[in-house]
Amino acid sequence: MSRQPNPFSNLAPDDIDAWVEGSTADAGRIIHEKGGVSDLSLTEDGDLLAWVEGSARHAVMVFFEDQILTSVCTCAKATACEHAVAVAYESLLLDPDGIALPAASEDDERLTLLSDLNDEASQVDLYLSSLSRDELIELILDLTDDIPEVDEELTCRMEEAFSEDEI
Ligand SMILES: [Zn+2]
């Protein structure tokens, strides 16, 4: 198995705190402390890949995009979740002097799971694009009826939009 240097060698706990805060960060720390992160490996692009066991098992990838810490995960939150925080903490345990992580193969199951996620997202995109304006309005009104958070968010945005008009 080929081994690569650790691109996360400059990562500090403060960077993780600045990235994800509050209860999500706490939950991530706890998952890490309980040993929930397993099979940490590095992709060809230098991204960290891991399995994270929280309430369910998730495939997680943590990486730098324009030097900013970011992540994708198979959980509902999808990014900057507790699972990603757990992986970031795990990476702090690695030897800072170019330690070695096993390389993830191209057909790694976690990469497949995460790319399926992207496919699902783009299919939703396609579906929305196929709807007419009236159908979109109907869909959004349905969502506001079914999901109180959507209703609240929409009311907020509406008030913002109206207050901008007044200026
Ligand atoms: Zn997650």
TrEMBL record:
PROSITE patterns in UniProt: ZF_SWIM
Q: Where is the SWIM-type domain?
A: 58-92
Print the keywords alphabetically.
Answer: Metal-binding, Zinc, Zinc-finger
Keyword Zinc part of the UniProt annotation: yes
Give the superkingdom in one word: Bacteria
Q: What is this protein called?
A: SWIM-type domain-containing protein
Organism lineage reads as:
Bacteria, Pseudomonadati, Thermodesulfobacteriota, Desulfobacteria, Desulfobacterales
